[in-house]
Amino acid sequence: MSNHNVPSLYEWVGGIDALNRLTKRFYEHVTNDAQLAPVFAHMGADHPAHVAAFLAEVLGGPTKYSEEHGGHPHMIRQHLNRHLAQDQRRRWVGLLLETADELGMPDDPEFRSALVGYLEWGSRLAVINSQPGATVDPLALMPKWGWGEVKGPYVG
């Protein structure tokens, strides 16, 4: 069976327009969330678009984030010394998924399984990278997520 007709996660979600709607609405919710608002208190107006571009690239879309911001090493640097906690991480993931539902984004089991897989994996890395002593590998590759990714164990 050939997979050449299988769309990327980026295509399935609706491309950059859908991701921009998601991140814009999500960060509107974040500003009113008691648990997350303090974490993002200094967020710039361009933050939602940066996150949308990052997600777009991870999900198989354009490489704009890497070209304009420096790829995964740049994202890792955004989390250094932020001291993120698991309860904040869980709330971030939950609120993002609630926002996806609110906006009527694809909710088929295959897509949501892939999306949740990435959000769990990526948000857990963000927590790890936010702890004291975390460093940035300048050669860290951009994550690429598809319909059934399984990553090996994290070995720091």
TrEMBL record:
Highest taxon above the source species: Bacteria
One Pfam family linked to the record: Bac_globin
InterPro entries the record matches: Globin-like_sf (IPR009050), Globin/Proto (IPR012292), Hemoglobin_trunc (IPR001486)
Keyword annotations from UniProtKB, A to Z: Heme, Iron, Metal-binding, Transport
Cross-referenced Gene3D superfamilies: Globins (1.10.490.10)
Name this polypeptide is given: Group II truncated hemoglobin
